[in-house]
Amino acid sequence: MSGSRPSSGASPKHMSLIKWTPFFDSEDMDKAFGSLMPTLRGSDDFMPAIDMYEDKDNVIVETQLAGIDPEKVDISIENDVLSIKGEGEKKHEVEEKNYYRKEIRRGSFYRSIPLPAHVMGDQARAINEAGVLKIMIPKAPEAKPNKIKIESK
Q1: Pairing of strands 58-64, 50-54
Q2: What pTM was estimated for this model as a whole?
């Protein structure tokens, strides 16, 4: 039987087509990847890396902002989404410099991060220490684990 294919039992005229439906439409896809990739508004824009973790009472977000004036950073929380945006100092670069490598980023940045719990954004605190911005956001009471003690009678 060389050259013959095993029959699946369905003839071509009895096969039905299933319409392909994407998991996301193009607008949802843009939103999903928007939090993973920087928005390329210009060559000077960048997206700072973050660390996010939580303790019993807070969601904590840290990001390195070395060389950026904390006064030029805006932090907001709305609907359990943290937004950090700012602008680094744009220094006039001397064109005579012959760079072997240019990795230090300057310019504007924007980061929007969904938080893993309901938070009380109006009680958040931010501390800049040695170029690391640490944002502590208290969890909403319903987001904290509620321990129930068992009474014995």
Answers
A1: antiparallel
A2: 0.58
